[in-house]
Each structure stands twice: as C-alpha cells, then as structure tokens.
C-alpha cells in the first residue's frame, strides 16, 4: 500500500476540544480511502471561528496538513497570490513523502497548484474535478482550470469528472461521487420493498438554503399547489436564507418543516418517510443527495443541469426540470402527486440499482483499478 497526498480547498476548523475537523462528506470519503492507502496526508486551509455542525474528525492514519485560507470576493482574491509561498512549501514538503497525489478542483489555489503539479512536481497525480464539467458559463478561474485540464495534461494524468462528456480525451473519465455505505444499501433494499405510494405524499429537500439550490422556488411552488395527496415538505439544511424562508412558509397553506442541519443518520430517517426528493439547483456537479435519495426510495425531482440527466430520465425514474421556474416545478410536483403506485414502484427499483454506483466500495474499487495502478505496482 502507498501514500496519498490530497490537496483541496475543504475548510477545516478546530473544535471546542482542539481537534481538527473538516466538512463531513469530504472527511468521510477520505476516511474510506484509508482502506487502500497506508498513509493519507490532506493539505487544506485552516479557518478561524466555530466549526460548523457538518464537520467531522479523521480516523487514525490520516494526517492533516495546514494551508492558509485564501480567495473570496473582490479584492480578497489577492490573498490567493499572497499565500502562494507558504502553501506551496507545505504541499512540496509532503509531496516528497507521497507516492500519488489527488488534487481537488476547481478552487482558487488551482491557478498555481495545477502548473506546479505539471512542471515542478515529480509525483504521479490525478485531478478530481467536482464542478459542472460541461457548463457553458462559469467563473473565470474555473474556466481557466478546465481549459488547463483539457489541454495541458499528458494522457497518463487522469481527470475524474461528473458525467460522460464524449468530446473529451480518454484521460478525462466519468467518476461517481461516493455517499453510501454497504449498510445503507442493505437498509435501502429493505425499505424499497416496503415503501408504498399511499397518501399523503411527502417531499424533502436536502442542501444549503441559498439561491443556487432553489429552496425558495420550492416554497413558492408549494404555496400554489392544492392537492388531496399532498403531505409534508421537509427542508433539511441551513444557510443564509433560513430565517426568511421560515417566515414565508408560515404564511402558506402547506406543512413545511425546517429541520436545520442534522446528521446523516437523521437525514436517512427523513428519506424513509418521504416519497419524493426535490432539488431545483441552478448549477451542480452531481449532488450526493440524489444518490442517497435513490437508495432510500425517494424519487428525484431535479434540475436538468450538468450530468444529472445522464442518471435521471424524465418520466422513467424521476422528473427533470428543463426550466428552473416556479411553473416548471409545479408541473413536475403535480405529476408526482398523480403518479400511479405501480409506476412509483418501478422508479424505486431502477433507482436503487443505479445507486450502487454511489457506494464507497464501488469508488474504492475503481480507484484501485483505474487510478492507482501505477503507484501500486511500484511499491
């Protein structure tokens, strides 16, 4: 087994016990990667302030490496340049101890880390691109990094992306983001054999309460729907819009429950009680919550952005929003409320099978076979 250095923009904090913690989904993924690597170093920025509730600690065998935070809006972007010496010295030091590197793009530090990886670094590496690879419009920094990955890397340096993009060269490969354990799969299988489409039909949203995720659109849509089958709408997550949305929700004739941030076990319980999951995002890579919802028997009502339409086909295993408007969302919600129970069961079977691609075991197997071969053979 070899040693992996991960370079990312994942925010880290010190919790009240002085322990370094990072964003839960990323830390969970890295904890699983320790099954196939002898040692993992994770170089990422350490922020001041209170650790968010979504933070999680690492298991043994994973060493956190401090980078200085940089970037932001407007003039704050200058900090990207100011932190280059320290951050590259940290990355360079630990790259010498690693046998393979994973860089997570797009991020501000990518503007100098990607050239460093190609021209100065001597360690094998691959790039995990988490954004919408096929986006027609994106911020300048992201656009520059995508151009670099398409045009400046050798064929033996792999780039993993969300979805299949046929115009890309063979070194750019589709790779699903993991979010499911084997126990999740067992529970999900049991659940979909029992879950039936009986009124009232419950809906859920899981994600950040911000403009991009479209949660305000959800509340607006349900404020205009009256249907005998409509049950509760569960909003899971936190964000800048939470207080405003709670005030709006109190004024409409629909049961909308705000759960705030809750842990993964509690989120799974929400999935169990719901029939449909809604995510009308403006932009995405491929959200892990779609894979989770499919596994636990929630039919997706989702935006047709990025590669989402490669997994969810309209009126075949879910509902796709080709326009992100209140009217389009209402139409899909009404379709779901009128769905035949037999069709619902077919959707659940299709989606649970697809969700296997979002397991950690599937992810680790693909890394060993497709990305980790060279370094494995040299150790």
Key traits:
379 residues, seven-stranded parallel sheet, six-stranded parallel sheet
Structural commentary:
By secondary structure, the protein is of the alpha/beta class. 37% of the residues lie in helices and 20% in strands. It has 14 helices and 16 strands. The strands form 3 sheets. Strands 6-4-1-7-8-9-10 form a 7-stranded parallel beta sheet, sandwiched between helices. The protein has a 6-stranded parallel beta sheet with strand order 13-12-11-14-15-16, sandwiched between helices. A 3-stranded antiparallel beta sheet has the order 2-3-5. Helix 5 links the parallel strand 8 and strand 9. Helix 6 runs antiparallel to helix 12 and helix 7 packs across helix 11. The longest helix has 14 residues. It is globular and about 65 Å long.
């Amino acid at each position: 087994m070899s040693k992996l250095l991960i370079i990312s923009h994942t925010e880290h904090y010190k919790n009240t016990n002085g322990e370094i913690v990072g964003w839960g989904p990323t830390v969970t993924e890295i904890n699983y990667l320790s099954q196939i690597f002898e040692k993992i170093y994770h170089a990422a920025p350490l922020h001041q302030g209170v650790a968010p509730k979504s933070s999680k600690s690492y298991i043994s065998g994973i060493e956190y490496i401090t980078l200085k935070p940089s970037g932001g809006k407007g003039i704050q972007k200058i900090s990207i340049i100011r932190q280059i010496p320290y951050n590259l010295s940290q990355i360079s030091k630990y790259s010498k101890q690693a046998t393979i590197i994973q860089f997570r793009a797009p991020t501000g530090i990518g503007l100098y880390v990607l050239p460093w990886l190609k021209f100065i670094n001597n360690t094998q590496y691959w790039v995990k691109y988490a954004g919408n690879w096929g986006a027609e419009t994106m911020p300048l920094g992201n656009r520059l990094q995508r151009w670099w990955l398409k045009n400046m890397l050798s064929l033996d340096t792999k780039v993993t992306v969300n979805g299949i993009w046929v115009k890309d060269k063979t070194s750019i490969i589709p790779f699903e983001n993991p979010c499911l354990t084997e126990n999740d799969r067992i529970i999900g299988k049991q659940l979909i054999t029992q879950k039936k489409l009986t009124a009232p039909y419950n809906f859920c949203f899981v994600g950040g309460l911000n403009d991009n995720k479209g949660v305000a659109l959800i509340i607006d849509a349900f404020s205009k729907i009256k249907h005998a089958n409509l049950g509760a709408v569960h909003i899971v997550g936190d964000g800048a819009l939470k207080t405003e949305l709670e005030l709006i929700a109190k004024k409409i004739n629909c049961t909308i429950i705000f759960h705030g941030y809750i842990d993964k076990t509690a989120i799974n319980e929400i999935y169990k009680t719901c029939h449909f999951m809604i995510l009308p995002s403006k932009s995405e890579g491929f959200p892990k919550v779609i894979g989770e919802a499919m596994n636990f028997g929630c039919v997706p009502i989702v935006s047709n952005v990025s590669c989402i339409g490669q997994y969810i086909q309209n009126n075949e295993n879910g509902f796709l929003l080709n326009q992100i408007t209140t009217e389009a969302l209402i139409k899909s919600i009404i379709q779901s409320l009128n769905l035949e129970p037999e069709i619902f069961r077919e959707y659940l079977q299709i989606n649970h099978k697809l969700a296997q691609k979002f397991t950690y075991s599937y992810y680790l197997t693909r890394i060993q076979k497709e990305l980790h071969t060279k370094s494995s053979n040299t150790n």
